[in-house]
Amino acid sequence: MTEEQGKEILFSGIDIGTETVNLVIMKEDEILHAHTEVTEEGGFIVSQRLLDQAKRKLMLPAESRMTLAATGIGKKTVTFAQKQSSDMVCHARGARWLFPEARTVLDIGASGNRAMSVNKAGKVEKFALNSKCASGTGSFLWSMTKVIEASFEEMTLLSSGIEHGTKISNYCAVFAESEVISKIHGGEPKPRIVAGIYDAVVDRLLEQLNRIGIKDEVVITGGVARNLGLIRALERRIGRKVRVPQDPQIVGALGAALFARAEVGQE
Fold first, then answer.
1. Could you say which DSSP state residue 225 is in?
2. Element (H, E) at 21
3. What is residue 122's DSSP assignment?
């Protein structure tokens, strides 16, 4: 990057979640840097560290100007951010930038999920949040991997080809664990149990999707979108294919960077 290029304004977005921090840095319509880190550090500390690391990696001149927008549950801890925006706005904006035909965006994170209906202008028209314990979230699925004693990849393989899994009726993650353990001890085949776990999560996701109405194109964001077994179960239930970004975890941070760009009048 030349000195003249370094004088151009860069736009960055940082998404402070319950388990991860995601950073995206953009110049015009190009993503220069994207990074996800699992950390227990405070939002202010980790945000500053990740920005400093990114600047060194990109070899940005000292005079480079950068507009930063923060989003996520910990956005208020990033006190040096010039802008702040809601999770929904950022995930919708990021999904639309990646998939311009997106009309339904489903964000599935570690501690919650939300469904959004997006119009042609990229505005969120309707939204619905999860309301029942942690069902339908990454933390729920993570707890199930421990009970099943299988990784997400192994769960995907186990559930492959199983259209009707064992019924998991409990909403609460704690009670669901007990129910799954009981089924294992009762001799229920593990593939059917795993398929039932995915069906239980999809049940919760459909509660949100049905409240806003499902319209093509459907885009799934958040770290849980990496779970192929869940995505297949969701596609089977809604009867259509969904789009998953190459890096679904950074979509919120991407949307924040785009929000920063729009706020300074470059969109």
1. G
2. strand 20-27
3. S
pTM to 2 decimal places: 0.90
Strand order in the sheet with 9-16: 30-38, 20-27, 9-16, 65-72, 83-84
Contact status, residue 66 vs residue 25, Cβ threshold 8 Å: yes
pLDDT in tens, 110-133: 878 899 999 988 899 999 988 656
Q: How far is CA 155 from CA 30, 64, 243, in A?
A: 36, 46, 21
Sketch out the chain's domains with CATH numbers: 3-99+250-263 (3.30.420.40), 104-244 (3.30.420.40)
Q: Which of 13-27, 59-73, 77-91, 163-177 has the lowest mean pLDDT?
A: 163-177
* CA distances (Å), origin 254, targets 30, 59, 105, 146, 149: 11, 21, 14, 32, 34
Could you tell me if 34 and 23 are in contact, meaning their C-beta atoms sit under 8 angstroms apart?
yes
In the chain, the percentage of residues whose pLDDT exceeds 70 is: 93
Positive or negative torsion for Cα 202, 241, 248, 106: negative
Contact 159, 229 (CB under 8 A): yes
DSSP 57-110: HHT--TT-EEEEEEEETTGGG-TT-SEE--HHHHHHHHHHHH-TT--EEEEE-S
> Dmax of the chain from CA atoms?
69
With 50 as the cut, is the pLDDT of residue 148 above it? Answer: yes
Give me the phi and psi of 80, to 5 degrees please: -90, 0
